[in-house]
């Protein structure tokens, strides 16, 4: 068993891509650390996942747009929400000036098998 720190290894400057580290995984769920440095979802792209996702912003800031809402929600440190399965959503922006660190918990229903092709946000 190893002790780790969620803020270790953060980039000092903006990166071309976000980084995602799987911190824990089980048959019905996964915990990820996602680090964004100015990234956003591609234009017109919406995540549409077959499982619930609980997400908390640990540092930085982001705009998260949930389908059907008139504008993105502005998230800051400590803000969290559960995105229900199949609710389309997208990241409109993340801070380019500091690392935006997300903790994402993907919760798969017990009766739903996992597939290698799924790509959680």
From TrEMBL:
Residues 50-105 form the Cupin type-2 domain. It holds the Pfam family Cupin_2. Residues 1-21 are annotated as: Disordered. This is Cupin domain-containing protein. The lineage of its organism: Bacteria, Pseudomonadati, Pseudomonadota, Alphaproteobacteria, Hyphomicrobiales.
């Amino acid at each position: 068993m190893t002790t780790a720190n969620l803020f270790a290894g953060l980039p000092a400057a903006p990166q071309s891509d976000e980084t995602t580290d799987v911190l824990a995984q089980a048959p019905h769920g996964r915990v990820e650390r996602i680090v964004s440095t100015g990234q956003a979802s591609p234009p017109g792209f919406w995540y549409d996942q077959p499982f619930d996702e609980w997400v908390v912003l640990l540092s930085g800031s982001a705009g998260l747009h949930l389908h059907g809402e008139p504008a993105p929600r502005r998230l800051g440190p400590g803000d969290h929400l559960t995105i229900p399965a199949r609710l389309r959503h997208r990241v409109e922006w993340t801070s380019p000036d500091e690392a935006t660190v997300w903790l994402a918990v993907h919760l798969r229903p017990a009766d739903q098998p996992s597939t290698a092709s799924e790509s959680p946000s």
